[in-house]
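Chapter review. Work through the record for MFS transporter before attempting the end-of-chapter questions.
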Amino acid sequence: MQQSKHNIRQWIALVAMSLGVFMGLLDVTVVNVALPTMVRSFNTTFTNLQWVLNAYTLVYAVTLLIMSKLGDMYGRKKIFLGSLILFVIASAVNGMATNLLVLDIGRGIQALGGAGMMSLSMALVASNFAGRERGLALGILGSIMGISTASGPLIGGYLVEQFGWPAIFYVNVPFGILAVILTVIYVKETPSYGKNQRIDFAGMFLSATGLFAIIYGLIVKEGHPHLSWLSGQVSGWLAGGVILLIAFVIVELHVADPMVDISMFKRPHFIGIVLVAFVLGAGIYAFNAYLTPLMQNYIGYSAVQTGVRQLTISAWSLILGPVVGILGARYSKKWMICISLFIGGAGFLWIGHAMGPGVSFVDLWPGMILIGITNGMVNPLLNTTGMEGVIPSEMGMASGLLNVFRQLGTTVGVVSLGLIQNAQYENYLNGHLGQINMPTAAVTGLKKALLDAGPFSGHGIAFSQRVSQAPFAKAFQHVVVTAYHNGMAAVCITVAGVVIVGGVGAALLLRNHVEVPDITKPADK
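Structure tokens for MFS transporter:
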């Protein structure tokens, strides 16, 4: 009876941590759907609203490692709970925001809470469960991670259409309060491994500023795709970030109580894990940013209709998460990850082949199912394999590093895929607009409008009321749509290559059996 009660408490604790993870990851993507409504509500432009997205991305990425270390040192439950409370308060403030400054600041504070929840959830699950139950619990948590990111358009679309944009923030409040109560009652605290350690302030500063500089440089490039990589506005931030991270590694190798144990990166298995995390972000998560505009702007589905169709991808996380946890205890997780990534590569190639004028969901769903299977398999496996070979005191940091590489992969992927799409889009426009029988002034003006607006907004320009009444409308619209689909095909092929390379890397680097390092031996200097 006592054992039964203990098991029930464990699974309720998992519910609490899953709620935190779901909210934290959902808020990375859900705002995208609300942007058009926010433009009208704040009487502003998409450009001015960009920091509603960027504030969350930046703060989330740069604080993941810091929150992980604080959790390892002072107790993961304490930091997780504090992060959860902060996230709920910031969500309420965001819903009440009457101007963009308040909303931007609120999003940054919300991201700090989200980083604490995400960075410590895996480590808390690993310390609250043992044996085969640990694998199952981490598998379920992985499935929650997969479905939360992919379900943003559906949940956000429904909330915005039914209740307005503040609802995407207010919805966090009741679920967050429930998660706080369950965490307080059911989640077990972990030991405070840092009682006799000094806080590595230098490491925290260098890691945060280094990641900030790199991600901000990528954001600048994303917002100004025609800027050269060698431009000071881009290369200055990127080079500065690399220098700061090199300094971070040097400091970590010499301080007595480092923020990150650099020796973790001497293990091929751990390198393989962070590689897979990066590929997952640069591939599947980054691609979501391009799939949604395709379905809304070019195929013509509403936000809710798009979200429903994207269940073809996200539903697999819910279906496969618990199953993967069980299978991972019996079969090679290394080869399950490897094969799953190859399946995803095939899915992206299918969608790339289907691209063209007139494409619809009927053409896309087979590829989307394959991508969904990959997401549903790899996310849970990444969690369980990421905790293998990690000593208890480093579980929070290992979780944080996985999340950092996943987020960094997403940011790099979104920017890189955008540049590839833009290049193909512009090349096709340059080669075909001049062939349309239309005045030279119209060609020049419309081409400039298309390039300034970018591929996502090209459909709106081509099918605007003014252009649709012109005698050259059909030919012009065909060129714009074809240019967009050429860019999307290039995006799909690129992502397929990234995911397949990730599968090869997993095969070469991951290990089926990983021993926990002997912490009684003196550390290598």
